[in-house]
Amino acid sequence: MNAADTHPFLEMRNVSKTFGRVQALRNVSLDVRLGEIHALMGENGAGKSTLMKILSGAYVPDEGSEILIDGQKVAINGPMAAKQLGIAIIYQELALSPNLTVAENIYLGRERSKAGFVDRGAMNAGIEGLLQRLGATFTARDRVQDLSIAERQLVEIARAVHAHSRVLIMDEPTTTLSERETERLFALVRQLRGEGLAIVYISHRMKEVYELSDRVSVLRDGTYVGTLDHADITPAAVVRMMVGRDLSSFYKKEHDAHQCRGRTILSVKDIRDGGRIQPCSFEIHEGEVLGIAGLVGAGRTELARLVYGADPKVSGTVSVDGKEVHIKTPLDALDAGIAYLTEDRKLLGLMLDMTVSENINLGVIARDSLPGGLLNLGRAKKRALAAIQATGIRTPTPDATVGGLSGGNQQKVLLSRLLETKPRVLILDEPTRGVDIGAKSEIYRLIDKLAREGVGVAVISSELPEIVGICDRVVVMREGHIAGELGGTPGAQPISQENIMAIATSAASREAA
After folding, report:
1. DSSP character for 218?
2. End-to-end CA gap in the chain
3. What is the pLDDT of residue 5?
4. Average pLDDT over the chain, rounded to an integer
5. Distance CA 95, CA 500 (A)
6. CATH of 250-337+423-512, one of 1.10.150.110, 3.40.50.300, 3.40.190.10, 3.90.70.10
7. How confident is the model at residue 436 (pLDDT cuts 50, 70, 90)?
């Protein structure tokens, strides 16, 4: 970044926003420079979205708030005003018209015409060079409905660049992208930074923030906490700013692994699926948190689905409390005391158009039905209220629709439903994916509480600090089989990120050889 770029292009000063009696923002300030990626972080409810909606013209700030572009005070009283000032926003839910072509979406509202008719030929020609510059593999004539999510996101970026935007806001852009698509997006974001755009990047993912950002600003409870330069960005520093406490407190265990660990609850012997999963054996004890680690594609989720009966096994046995159980369906697993939290809560877990109460009660409401098969709605309401309090679900009412909650609260609703089944074994697949730091901490405390109560918990996670921080013992998978084990007994190889990666990448076996 050259010296001229150290001056703010965008400044937001003392920005406040009140909704009725709720003050969502209080005197927040933010400055962004041309040619930088400026990350904006904070827990759900910290005010990030409200601040960006003010910048993009969706909300009007309270009196006394100031926004300056290139040193000049401006009034952003609507989305069109924001666009005219060179501000573009790409939301998580992409705002494209799928039935239109790429060119028609990019020119939407600014169509070229000839003799009173839309000149599609000129529009197609007008963006082909831009698409090539951005590395698009599709053409201006392709319909958006035929593109992948990553390609549609590129159309949004192309639209912003084509409109000569100087400030580009990206809200959780990698949520639905694969690892390879994420890498391509990062390369494009860096390219745009090199071309002089000011990029505001909103993300919960510390790895992304560290890898991409030149600076990071943090909001907490609707207020501005501070800004860090790249050299000062560390997970501990950002977490401390976001939640007001040290990172070490997130992984603090109140359960004593040696005292809590009791007899074997779950025993899996030589289970396999005839495909990716080779014969796998492991155990989970009472009061133990078992980590299941490995690289993407190692077979962690596939193994869990075999145990739970979501996928058919070819051979192997599953025993609960020393007794073999025959699991062919997830219902069989629940009856045996095994519950499974899917890694895709929206597609495979929650009923997003149903209420919080309905989702919590979904697995158990039939158990306490009234004579004649009528649902006991009174008991269901009490159960929902108790679960909301126990897991800290933030919802205006039990009758609120789950789809309207934040990712962390949706995850706690799904966890509450599973806990109502009173499982002996709880398998959690990526339990903190897509949730903010505060919700992660609450989920960790819940896992610790379950261990103290004697539940056997298995945690599948791609976040190695999470595995190291909360697990008592770890099995590491590689290419469809369990390649090694860490921790659990005195003298065992300790649980660490280095040891996990050594087994996951076969480095340990190469060194032994």
Report:
1. E
2. 48
3. 61
4. 86
5. 41
6. 3.40.50.300
7. confident
Q: What is the pLDDT of residue 250?
A: 65
The answer to whether 299 and 277 have CB atoms below 8 angstroms apart is yes
Residue 369 is encoded by which pair of tokens? 């039905």
| pTM exceeds cut of 0.85 | no
Render the burial of 243-277: b for 16+ CB within 10 Å, e for the rest.
beeebeebbebebebeebbeebbbbbeebbbeeeb
Angle at 413 between CA 48 and CA 446, to 5 degrees: 90
Query: Which tokens go with 224?
Result: 């501005």
pLDDT, tens digit, 9 for 90 and up, residues 443-467: 898 899 899 999 999 999 988 888 9
Strand-by-strand arrangement of the 338-341 sheet: 338-341, 425-429, 456-460, 289-294, 473-478, 481-487
Q: pLDDT-derived band of residue 37, with 50, 70 and 90 as boundaries?
A: very high
Q: Give Cα 187 to chain centroid, integer Å.
A: 21
| Burial classification of residue 134, based on how many CB atoms lie within 10 Å of its CB (0-12 exposed, 13-18 middle, 19 or more buried) | middle
* Cβ atoms of residues 491 and 499 within 8 Å: no
Can you say whether residue 150 is alpha, beta or left, with left for phi > 0 and alpha for psi between -120 and 50 degrees?
alpha
Q: What CATH number does domain 3-245 carry, 3.30.2290.10, 3.40.50.1240, 3.40.640.10, 3.40.50.300?
A: 3.40.50.300
The structural domains of the chain, with segments of one domain joined by +, span 3-245, 250-337+423-512
Least confident of 19-33, 73-87, 405-419: 405-419
What are 366-393's pLDDT values in tens digits? Answer: 666 666 666 667 778 888 888 888 888 8
* pLDDT of the residue at 2: 42
Q: CB atoms < 10 A from the CB of 209, how many?
A: 22
pLDDT tens-digit readout, 150-200: 888 899 899 899 989 999 999 888 877 777 888 888 999 999 999 999 999
3-state secondary structure (DSSP) of residue 227: strand
Give 374's Cβ-side CA count (13 Å radius): 7
For the record, the structure tokens of 259 come out as: 């005292």
Q: Which two tokens stand for residue 206?
A: 């510390």
Distance CA 279, CA 270 (A): 4
156, 172, 350 from 213: Cα distances, Å: 21, 14, 33
For 196, other C-beta atoms within 10 Å of its C-beta total 12
Please tell me if the domain spanning 3-245 has the same topology as the one spanning 250-337+423-512.
Answer: yes
Please give the structure tokens belonging to residue 409.
Answer: 């609260």
Cα-based torsion angle of the residue sequence 76, 80, 85, 87 in order, rounded to the nearest 10 degrees: 90
